[in-house]
Amino acid sequence: MKVHSGVMSRTNVDIDDELVAAAPRMYRLDSKRSAVDLALRRLVGEPLSRDEALALQGSGFDFTNDEIESFSDADIKLADES
After folding, report:
1. Does residue 25 lie within any of the structural domains?
2. Residue-averaged pLDDT of the chain
3. Structural domain range at position 60
4. Whole-angstrom Cα Rg for the chain
5. What number is the average pLDDT over the span 4-29?
6. How many structural domains compose the chain?
7. Under 8 Å CB-to-CB from 20, ≥6 apart: which residues?
8. Is residue 26 a contact partner of residue 60, using CB atoms and an 8 Å limit?
9. Is 36 part of any domain?
10. In a domain, 48, yes or no
11. Is the distance from CB of 33 to CB of 41 less than 8 angstroms?
């Protein structure tokens, strides 16, 4: 069943509800579809445009590269548990 004109198809997937709920808040998105679309584009798709990158400014990621590199596995595990 084709839903869109050749560029998209409908796919049903099981996704972590907490992650799906967090994404719109973190990135100011308006739907689950937008969250999945952003995730796939950032993972394997086209690079963000300048305007898209600027729109993400202030979306909740507040670490410098040095801070990220200093994280230990224990820090990451604690963050996953919260």
Report:
1. yes
2. 77
3. 17-81
4. 16
5. 82
6. 1
7. 32, 35, 36
8. yes
9. yes
10. yes
11. no
